[in-house]
Batch of 2 targets.
Target 1
Amino acid sequence: MRSVRARAALGATLVVAVALIAAGLAVLAVLRGNLTDRAGLEAEVAAREAAGQLALGVAYAELELGDEETHPVQVTDGSGRVVAVSKDLEAISGTGSSRVAPAPPGPAPGDDDDDDDDDDGGDPARGEVSSDQPHFTNGTATVDGEEADYRFATVEATTKQDVTLTVHAGAPLAAEQEAVDTVRNAMLTGLPVMLLVVAGVTWLVTRRALRPVEGIRRELAAITASEDLGRRVPEPDSRDEIARLARTTNETLTVLEGSVDRQRRFVADASHELRSPIASLRTQLEVGAAHPELLDVPGAVADTVRLQVLAADLLLLARLDAGERPGRTAVDLGALVREETSQRAADRVPPEVSVEGAGPLEVTGSRGQLARVVGNLLDNAERHAERSVGLSVRAERGDVLVEVTDDGAGVPEAERERVFERFVRLDDARSRDDGGAGLGLAIARDVASRHGGTLTVGTAPGGGARFTLRLPGRSGTERERTADG
């Protein structure tokens, strides 16, 4: 069963079926209990009426047992001997004795000894009916040839002669059985109809609720077939989970479209950047092959180096885009900065380095990638500086800051985010050889982000650009763990 509608309808039907069956059984039990209690009350009334007559001294043969057809009565003495039964009682069960014929007569409760009474000089003792709760049982009785089920009530009575008698009186259970059968049949008839209604309503409601989902599915299938990421799935007007799903899907499509567009631009820009040095190198080699004396070896080497650098940048960007995680080694940024600047003595504008703090300024990450960030920032500053480049490292609120400044023209405020995009150069008037491929700052920001840090650009005190690299410092706990390891 692969349809959500079918599963929902089946699940709702099963739940309702279980609930209705449980409720029906409970109703039947309550109804049967109430009707049984009612029959027991009728039986108790009949039994106490007969017991009252016995307590008053009415003879067995003169007992008035009410409606004997609906309330059969059986009276037994202390030894279980049947002393009286109601008229037309032919068989009985559930009272402790199945006899329906009275035993040979003994002293009747009304046979008083006048001499004894006179000798006593007072009224004879009065009988009484037990006030204890009656005992109830279920059984059968045959009255005038018809057998039926009865609820029997048992009470005790004491005659004037101090004889204890037990009175069993019954009330028919036919009404209880008929009512229970009627309710049960109604439930058995109505249950399937109710379940069909529940299943149908659930199917229709689920179908209507899932209609937007089907629209989303069709649109996604069309997007997949056409590869047009500019399309969007329909968003319903409701504020339910389906509407949120549609909005989330459209947001995902927007992000995916942007990612694909960036990838396409990246491939196009990379191809464009590679074409120039490759064409130049090919031209020089072809000229050298035809005229060896005209071969520009330094130019060929420069183009080869440029290709090598560009290929390395593209490879690093590809690894970063693939989600490569940086290492977890301790890196002293102060030592790293000194090492990087010591190799730049021959730069056009050697940087002025300032490292604040006596202890190590450690962060956690990849030393090679962080060195690449510092190098790219220094290359960018040197490219735009006029007379000076500054580089400082310091600790601030648990972070380590690296700032690179220059005294050039700076970065316009409107372009301060765009400079970190790939293959973007604000100095378009410069030649590609002088301006680079426009990947250095993009690589620097990606590496900073992978290390849990940030890279921003602002205005230097001298009016040029100030690039600030902020990385989370290495905590004392991490240093202790490394030392212990």
Target 2
Amino acid sequence: MSLKGRTAVVTGAGSGLGRACAVQLARDGAAVAVWDLNAEGAGETVRTIEAEGGRAVAYVGDAADRAAIEQTLARIRADLGPVLVLVNNAGITGFKPFLEITPEELERIYRINLMGPFFLTQAVIPDMLAAGWGRIVNISSSSAQTGAVGMAHYSSSKGGIIALTKTLAQEFAARGITVNNIPPGFIDTPMTRASPIDVDEIAAISPMKRAGQPEDIAAACSFLASEAAGYITGQTFGVNGGRVIY
């Protein structure tokens, strides 16, 4: 699934799902902008890509801040060219009873998980419109599909991502741009391991009896970013080991 000659941006690419997606898109031929707040993690992702013969550049900045978005995109365009593939992966999680969630906590999780992808997509789409081709892959969450006790702020922010995906897909379908979202199930990442969820225990009662791996998400991302997925848009492309089936 060649992306040769195209530039891809992956946010939150310094570890976990973002790193796996960045590495896979580089294998597919894209020049990858590895965007993360963690300079060390972003650098490690770039080194992994370069060790395989791919092309990548690390960019450190807040992908949920409008000014930082414009500044970082200007650097990416100067270094790698117009952005034709965007993976909105950066995000944070949260676990707290609904009645205890503060306005500050709600605002922070919405700013990073929903407003950041909204503003970044706004800033990137003109490149895609000019090219008459674009691929946007949003990382949502299976918690947005099922609901999740103690995660009202997180699951609702990711539900907004699913709604945003559907809306943008309709608005830009005739312009050569596809917009889809992947809601991961229980994926074994550093963020998941740092949460109060027992990944192994929950995976053991799932249909596949195992946790997913970041590479499982990266494979779906690779497909949705490819020419082969040109007639797929507005879809929630579940990669969850059978946790959510409908």
